[in-house]
Automatic annotation (TrEMBL):
<keyword id="KW-0804">Transcription</keyword>
<keyword id="KW-0614">Plasmid</keyword>
<keyword id="KW-0479">Metal-binding</keyword>
<keyword id="KW-0238">DNA-binding</keyword>
<dbReference type="GO" id="GO:0046872">
    <property type="term" value="F:metal ion binding"/>
</dbReference>
<keyword id="KW-0963">Cytoplasm</keyword>
<keyword id="KW-0010">Activator</keyword>
<keyword id="KW-0805">Transcription regulation</keyword>
<dbReference type="GO" id="GO:0045893">
    <property type="term" value="P:positive regulation of DNA-templated transcription"/>
</dbReference>
<dbReference type="InterPro" id="IPR007944">
    <property type="entry name" value="FlhC"/>
</dbReference>
<dbReference type="GO" id="GO:1902208">
    <property type="term" value="P:regulation of bacterial-type flagellum assembly"/>
</dbReference>
<dbReference type="GO" id="GO:0044781">
    <property type="term" value="P:bacterial-type flagellum organization"/>
</dbReference>
<dbReference type="Pfam" id="PF05280">
    <property type="entry name" value="FlhC"/>
</dbReference>
<keyword id="KW-1005">Bacterial flagellum biogenesis</keyword>
<protein>
    <recommendedName>
        <fullName>Flagellar transcriptional regulator FlhC</fullName>
    </recommendedName>
</protein>
<dbReference type="GO" id="GO:0003677">
    <property type="term" value="F:DNA binding"/>
</dbReference>
<keyword id="KW-0862">Zinc</keyword>
Length: 160
């Protein structure tokens, strides 16, 4: 017999698969095996799940200033709703913030959202307030393209 915790994990995994989050990330968030997830993916999407190397950092998914702005807006919503990420990323919080962000007209890819939270928690990204327009934005101090300045007003931070 399936336990309530397992049922919850399968329901969460199914919701993440519907949003097309890569299966290895779904497994890490829910503990559901990739073999099971491949069957769920095929049933929902009518095709096999995508394969290939996952990005290492959020920077590789942020390919324009528009995506940088959407990611920053998502992070703002997430932090306002749930506070800083402590421990593992919570799948329900991730989906809730993506949904709430979309209700405000800000569509963000769930994989981009996941990697932004993970990299912010790990310190690979910072979330400063722009001294020009006052918006918070994602910043990569190593000079990552599209993350080297505020995506809303294009103001670059002062180098120390």
């Amino acid at each position: 017999m399936i336990s309530v915790a397992e049922l919850h994990a399968y329901n969460t995994a199914t919701a993440l698969v519907r949003r097309k989050l890569r299966l290895s990330l779904v497994t890490s968030l829910t503990g559901v095996s990739q073999r099971t997830l491949r069957g769920i993916w095929r049933e929902i999407h009518g095709e096999g799940a995508p394969n290939g190397k996952l990005p290492e950092f959020a920077q590789s998914l942020i390919t324009s200033r528009q995506i940088a702005a959407s990611a920053a807006a998502f992070v703002s919503v997430y932090l306002q709703q749930y506070g800083p990420v402590k421990g593992a990323i919570n799948a329900e919080h991730l989906m809730g913030a993506v949904d709430l962000s979309a209700r405000f007209g800000n569509e963000v890819n769930i994989a981009t959202a996941f990697y932004c939270l993970r990299d912010l928690k790990a310190g690979f990204l910072m979330f400063p307030k722009c001294c020009q327009c006052g918006a918070r934005y994602l910043y990569d101090s190593s000079g990552g393209r599209h993350l080297d300045r505020c995506p809303f007003c294009s103001h670059a931070p002062l180098k120390r």
